[in-house]
């Protein structure tokens, strides 16, 4: 049989990186010395969807607008808003008492039947974990703050300038975006029970959503921070009638907060907030809005709201609009321990081919 020459991945794909992205953790000691660098490739990323939402202008040309000769009019979305990557969110392996579980946490790692070693679970392509992380570290600023992206930079790759097999000249283009945040020495060091506390960081996600300033010590899943309702934190009131359509209460004033294509969280109408547990017993409280007319009160969901016993929900419910969008999500091959002894710089690199 003839010999088969197998080209490296980066040669087959025509650029210098074997995957579509990389995440790097730069671990420094108290004196700022780099003690370790840990890098992992990203097999699947979703930043191209975010880029596609940022390319268009926030107005569109109406050929018969204005006086009939044409005019620029507002588009139906803000390309510089919720779809832009703003946060890097972390999850860790710990039990109900806050004790780290490391790689023994079955939510993150399973034992390989061949090697006998712990390997990360495989994340699916759907909206698993209700669109959030497996076990997000609760937010409690300043020591467990919502980590905003603090540095944005760009790196180049070499691309063929002409026909690759005929011309030797190449050019470099800045098609790698690097998004960085830093877990400081006094951040993310466990739940503060002892001086030796630490978190075993097992997952990391690149997140878009609404712009959030200081959020305080809410001790909540960061996903709850991205839910929109009334300014006092209460949900929009609506009526469920056993079908896939829920109707906003006649007294509800924010009729256009929820739009077609949004994700909404459906909760109990009273006594619940965005961070409350689901009192209605649903398998997942998150739904996709399939249809919603501007100014209308009827909201068609992607399925009939039911509880875990498959009983349709009937009566008054509450709705929050969910602005959290995970652009990329990774379970780490090797979990990282974060304690007060180390600063960890997290750099998310995305390659746009």
Order of helices and strands: HEEHEEEEEEEEEEEEEEEEE
Report the C-alpha radius of gyration, rounded: 23 Å
Shape: globular
How many distinct helices? 2
Structure, explained:
- This protein has helices at 9-13, 47-54; strands at residues 21-28, 34-42, 59-62, 71-74, 85-92, 109-111, 118-120, 151-160, 170-183, 199-208, 227-228, 236-241, 245-248, 263-268, 286-291, 298-301, 314-322, 325-338, 343-351.
- By secondary structure, the protein is mainly β.
- It has 2 domains: 8-55 and 74-209 and 324-353, no CATH class; 227-323, no CATH class.
- A hairpin with an 8-residue loop joins strand 3 and strand 4 (71-74).
Name the features:
mainly beta; six-stranded antiparallel β-barrel; 2 helices; 4% helix; 353 residues
Short synopsis of the structure:
With 353 residues, the protein is mainly β. The chain is built from 2 helices and 19 strands. The model is unreliable at 1-19 (pLDDT under 50).
């Amino acid at each position: 049989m003839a010999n088969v020459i197998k080209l490296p991945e980066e040669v087959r794909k025509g650029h210098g990186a074997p995957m579509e992205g990389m995440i790097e953790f730069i671990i420094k000691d108290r004196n700022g010395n780099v003690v370790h660098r840990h890098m992992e490739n990203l097999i699947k990323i979703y930043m191209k969807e975010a880029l596609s939402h940022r390319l268009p202008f926030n107005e569109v040309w109406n050929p018969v607008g204005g006086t009939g000769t044409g005019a620029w009019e507002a588009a139906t979305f803000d390309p510089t808003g919720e779809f832009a990557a703003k946060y890097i969110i972390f999850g860790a392996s710990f039990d109900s008492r806050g004790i780290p579980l490391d790689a023994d946490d079955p939510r993150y790692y399973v034992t390989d039947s061949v090697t006998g070693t712990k390997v990360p679970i495989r994340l699916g392509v759907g909206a698993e974990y209700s669109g959030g992380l497996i076990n997000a570290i609760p937010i409690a600023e300043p020591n467990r703050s919502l980590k905003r992206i603090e540095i944005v930079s760009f790196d180049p790759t070499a691309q063929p300038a002409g026909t690759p097999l005929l011309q030797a000249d190449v050019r470099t283009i800045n098609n790698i975006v690097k998004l960085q945040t830093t877990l400081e020495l006094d951040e993310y060091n466990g739940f503060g029970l002892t001086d030796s506390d630490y978190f075993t960081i097992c997952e990391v996600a690149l997140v878009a959503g609404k712009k959030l300033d200081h959020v305080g010590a809410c001790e909540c899943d960061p996903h709850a921070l991205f839910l929109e309702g009334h300014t006092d934190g209460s949900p929009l009131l609506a009526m469920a009638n056993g079908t896939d359509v829920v109707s906003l209460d006649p007294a509800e004033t924010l009729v256009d907060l929820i739009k077609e294509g949004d994700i909404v969280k459906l909760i109990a109408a009273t006594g619940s907030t965005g961070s409350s547990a689901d009192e209605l017993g649903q398998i997942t409280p998150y739904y996709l809005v399939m249809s919603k007319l501007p100014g209308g009160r009827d909201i068609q969901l992607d399925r009939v709201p039911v509880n875990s016993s498959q009983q349709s929900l009937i009566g008054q419910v509450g709705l929050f609009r969910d602005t959290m969008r995970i652009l990329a999500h990774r379970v780490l091959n090797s979990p990282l321990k974060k304690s007060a002894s180390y600063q960890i710089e997290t750099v998310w690199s995305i390659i746009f081919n």
